[in-house]
Amino acid sequence: MSLSIPCVLMRAGTSRGPFFLREWLPIEQTAFDSALIDAIGAADAIQVDGLGGGSSLTSKVAIVSKSAQPGCDVDYLFAQVSLGERRVDYRPNCGNMLSGVGAFAIEQGLVVAGSERTTLRVFNVNTRSRIELTLETPAGRVRYDGDTRIDGVSRPGAPVLLSFLDAWGATTGSVFPTGARSERIDGIEVTCIDAAIPLMIVRAHQLGLSGSESAQELDSTDGLLTTLEQLRIEAGRRMGLGDVRNSVIPKPVVVSEGSCADSVTSRYFTPKRCHSSHAVTGAIGVSTAFCTPGTVAYRERATDRNCRTVNVQHPSGSIAISIELEGAGESRCVTSASVVRTVRKIFEGTLYLPNYVL
Fold this sequence. Notes:
358 residues, alpha+beta, 17-stranded mixed β-sheet, 17 strands, 35% strand, globular
């Protein structure tokens, strides 16, 4: 016997995973967790027994429902399913999977599509923050094909604009939850920041790196992952996140100078491997630090504009974050950020789960 539930598999941004309506899944939390774990096939590292692909980038789940939040259209709960163990982390948001929420919500009848474009407001349950999505819907139907390219994805698609409205301090209650814009952990200067997602940022040269290494080179660098994990655990404690050994936040990020004045080179860890491209939420966090005096990622410029596009350069190319700032000097802060992604619906059908899930 097996449990059958509807499922839509989507590539959203540079991530991939199943999308579910909340009503398709069990109500009880243990059964809910088990359904996601067995959907991905998390019990083994290569995930041969599920929809996962043996990577944290393909071990993600989006759960969508009609929103009860004022001014919001849908709720989006993100789940990061583990590799090789039966565990789910609901603490972070994922901006890449978020980019598929609009198309899924429209096609499932939660949102009425416009005749040319549709803008909807999403409430992220994980971080209790709001994001506006705008996607193309000619003749009231979601458009997937198009000419927009994003680094880390081989095929172009229709653009999806994500505008983050209140993601700063959403998880911890403060953009700089330790009270400092930079501090030392084990003699290494870091910035602990909560901007779209909690991050621990460190300069590449402090770890003996150039910052331009590939993801594979960083994963195989002797002692690097161990050092980053030790720093991350202490950063999590200082940020008020408790014991983060079984959590994916805060994410470690290694930064160095970019190729031009409005760029920064970033290597984003997930957290125990280097991302082959970059997370959207992580890019927003890095861009926020890049524009904020006193952080390890800050790059001073002769003239700072209130509207800027920061190019976050990653192993597969770059991701452009359009940001708006207010204030000057030490009081300068980021008030909103937007980014363009693309989405592809891979299949829609029935997923079969072991009956013991219930």
